[in-house]
Write a structure and sequence with these properties.
By secondary structure, the chain is an alpha/beta fold. The protein has 15 helices and 15 strands. The structure holds pyridoxal-5'-phosphate. The site of pyridoxal-5'-phosphate has 15 residues, from helix 5.
Amino acid sequence: MAQVYPFTDPKQAEEKPPTVMVSGHGCFVTSDQGKTYLDGVAGLWCASLGFSNERLIAAADAQMKTLPYYHSFMGRTTDRTNELAAKLASLLPGDLNHVFFGCSGSDAVETAAKIVRFYWNAKGKPEKKHIIAREAAYHGSASTSAGLTGMDYCHTGFDLPAPDILRTGRPHYYSDAKPGESELDFSKRRAAQLEDLILEIGPERVGAFIGEPVIGSGGVIPPPEGYWAEIQAVLKRHGVLLIADEIITGFGRTGAWFASQRYGLQPDLMTMAKQLTSAYFPVSAVAISDGVRAGLANLASELGTFGHGFTYGGHPVGCAVALETLAIYEEMDLPRHVQRLGAYLEERLAPLSNHPAIGDIRVMGLMGGVQFHEAEVAKAALEACEERGLLLRRIDGTIAISPPYVITEAELDQLVDLLTESLQAVAGERHLEARRA
Ligand code: PLP
């Protein structure tokens, strides 16, 4: 036993080692036991073009043969890195015209948090450093990013979060609204809660708010009606920057190029990764607005450098893969493609909402959540899916669905049929047990 596995109980892994994947094709992956699974979550919400895209493989191969590596430090960069920065700037909404490259979602969030500090120092407001994140947020597992994440399991034992991280309520209308409360009233309540927190700490001490436009790993939670408009009004009132974490939602997942466009966010900073390369190469990016870039440039110039960077950031092979991924997305008319398949998924899942074990079903593009009344039933259903050759993911009582964009309608049928069959098997058994008891 050599590997310490992420987000895994090490002792349990000694008794039940992880499933070993050895190959992939289309939306399917195969284990060393010869079992093939339909991957209904595209790995970790990321393998958007499936597991055997020849064009991405060819793009990586060609770049490997031309220039397999060069950095972007101290007066050097690569043609591919520049090309990708320009391409992203052309796709990004609003005045997000500048890009900083990294290698993982977590490092993108670390970079965004450091830019917030640097920016407010540049503006002569060194006290304005607290960052507000939400319950149920997932922003990564390095230090600041793990602190911003709203799950205890990312904090306990790691002495996190640091005291400059503050927490406000999650936008989970289905689970957290008061009886009779409308979506809009719930959004207003969450915005008021945020404003109370800012006023308690002092607006001069709050630098930024970070949020996923649609929460992913915290339970597939879309914003309720009016949520982002209410939140942004509070942030504007108190001069607090907005970081949109689009690491899951960026590049089409919700049926728009960026979920910020779908939900009307105007972020100062945006983090991206995952679907940027269809996960074929680890590339992340932070998009930076004109205003933040100007502040950053002033201080960095005064200091003689922007003292931040990663050896592999802007890796030319990763950038070549990203450019090819974006070209494929454009050819497939990405937003419309995802909207069409998302509507089909929603239609196929709808009958499940009548099942007594299911509480709520939420679908935004090719991002779905099926919330059960009991987490134990969701857990059993997930295991039953896996036995039947379907990989999904459970977050407490919610089963998350986020298939590759190359999934066909027939494969979506297969996904929903296997989920339904698994649900019948476990929920049926529980009903029998209840009747026996
Ligand atoms: N932010 C969001 C919204 C994520 O979903 C994730 C990963 O799932 C991250 C950040 C961290 O990305 P990574 O695992 O690449 O560090």
